Structures are given as C-alpha cells and as structure tokens.
Amino acid sequence: MQFTDRTDAGRRLAVALRHLGRRDPVVLGLPRGGVPVAYEVAQALGAPLDVIVVRKLGVPYHPELGFGAIGEGGVRVISEEIVRRAGVGEKDLVAVERAEAAELVRRAHAYREGRPRLPLEGRAVVVVDDGVATGATARAACQVVRAQGAAYVVLAVPVAPPDAAARLREDADEVVCLSAPVLFSAVGEWYRDFSQTSDEEVVALLARASADAVTAEEVEVDAGGVPLSGDLVLPADAGAVVVFAHGSGSSRHSPRNRSVAAALNRAGLGTLLFDLLTPGEEVYRANVFDIGLLAGRLADTTDWLRRRVPLPVGSFGASTGAAAALRAAAAADSGVGAVVSRGGRPDLAGADLSGVRAPTLLVVGGDDTTVIDLNRQAQAALHCENRLEIVPGATHLFEEPGALERVADLARDWFTAHLLR
What we know:
eight-stranded mixed β-sheet; five-stranded parallel β-sheet; single chain; Rossmann fold
C-alpha cells in the first residue's frame, strides 16, 4: 500500500479508527511528520489534537541505544536492565536526562505557542506517527502516555515492518497499522510525497485544531439548591445544547451516553451530562425510580443551563431518564425544543405524556421486545410530533456492532432538524 502524502495517510488511517469515536479519545501526533497524519485523524473523530513530545535517553557512547525516555509533566521511563547492562553511571544518566529535558521543554513550548498540554488522565489516547521503522520512539511515546494517566493507549501508523508492529503491541492496548510490508527499508518509500514537515507546519496545524476545538468544562449545576456535578461541552459556534438524563444505575460517566454526546458535538451541538442524584442519594435505590424527583432535577438543570448558555435546548433520556425528560418537557415553561429517548421507559411519565409539546423521537432496540411495546403505548399517548425508530438486531443497551452509532445518527438528525431550523 502506498500513500499520496501524509494527509492521504491520515484520512485512510481515520477510517480504520472510527470505532474509537465512542471512547471520546484524545489524539496525539509525534512531531514532526506524525502531526499532519494525526490532524486528519482528529478531524474525523471529532477529537482534540495535541503533540506528544518525548525524548529518548541514549547511552552516552552509543546514543542509538535508548535506556529510557522522558515526557512532559516530569514523566520518566527508565529501563534499569539496559542501564545495568550498558554500565551507565549515575553521573552520565543525570547529564543525558538534563540535556534532553531542556530540549523537550523548548520543543513543546514552540509547538503549542504557550497553550497547556491536554490532560490525559483516564482518557483513551491515540498516538499517531507517519510510519515506524524501529519503533523505539513510538514505544517510548506509548510508555510516556501511559505514565501520564491514559486509561487506554492506541498506537496508529500507516506503515511499519511486521517485526516492529509486533513489538509495539507490548506497549499499546491496541495497534492499528494499515500496511506491514515484509520488504521494508524506510518509511518514505511508501509515500509518493514524503517531503519534510516543518516546525511551522506543526504549529499551524495545532493552532487550527485548537481554534476548531470544543470548550469542555466540569460544572456544578444548581438544581433547586442541590449541587450536582456535570460536564458541559460546547463546540465552536454551537447552535443548540442537549441535556442528558441518564438511566437507572448510571451516571454522567455512562459510556453509551458519552458516545452519543461525542457524535452530537461533532455535529455542532453542545452537550451537558450531569448526575441526577448526589452520591448520598444514589445509595437509596428508590431514588433511581422516583420519576418526579428526577424530572424536577432535570427541569431545574435546564433552567440553570438556559441562563448560562442562551441557546435552544433539547433533552436526551435513557431508560428511566427518558421518563424524567418527558415529564420535565410537559411543563408549559420547560423551554425544551426536542426530546430523544434511547431504550427508554417513556410509559413511566404517565399522564404527563399528553402534555408534551416538544417533538419526540423514541429509539428502541429491535430485540428489546418488552420495551418496544411500552414505547408504542407511550407513543399513543403523545399529542406532539413524534416518531418511533426500531434499530434491527439491537438489545436494550445497544451493545451490538453499529447499534449505538445508529442511535447517535438518529439523535443527531432529530436535534439538528428541530433545534437548529
């Protein structure tokens, strides 16, 4: 497989990484050549882009032999075995590390133009390069990313020799390599245009990605005097914002809701995921099914959000959260412009269903037969514009391949049509 240039390689690599969209990843490019590739991946996944600046620590008399690596944030990865075998003394070790640390700081500052590095704690991280020859730098990058707190590390490259690709799996949870030719001499032979990437190009791509990036912040929602933790994400020029009401036994960290939220963000919709209950309230199981309590919290949160962000608001509810979303939307002054229910229990909204005026989309898995019947009953009670979508082959949690992506597409189209028109 041959690539036209790094842009072409990045776009092809992005196709192979589409499954990571649901993990809400961070994309890191290895400067310099890896950044144009990473830029295309980040754009396709709707993910934030940064550089991963690492410096290999080489044995003084044999610099090609690395005894460790350093990264930003004081991260230090040392192979004690290589240090012992190579006879690297403490004095030499300190001297090499001091010199490389100074260069690391200089490069990181120059590339980001003073912007802080993206936090990786608990995140899925995709490390991208334009290709791998020996794999030493890529492996060091994965080790540094892991030490910086990444929960899941993916190494993605367009091309690498088979033996190097195999070694990379020792340091990454997942390796995505488009081509692993047996006859491999250099990365550049697999590109028609492999001209050098300049520092200026790296700076420009990072600046462009930063300008297009979403604003994400942890917030404390005031729900009728009760403080609730939330995550508010607003893409640049967001035209509307969607509040998520999670289901029983879940929270704002629900991976399914976060996957749908990421898809909405890529479509230019803001999202607010928040905890409907405090940690103390979650202890009592009855609170999880107290639709009146949950609907009140959601209504208060929607009012809080409308004061903070003057945009049209929609509601996305899952399981019992769907009933809460519909009951809250039934209030005359709800301000809710559209509702989407995923695998929901809209029937639990009871008589309030007839008061809902916001266009409502009910999405149910085709194999979730009991919930399909409950949604059909609820649909008959709605007096607003509404639609029932059944996703073939999907069960209640939409865990089947492609099922959750279908939910995200349906929700995106519904909110776009009814909140942005």
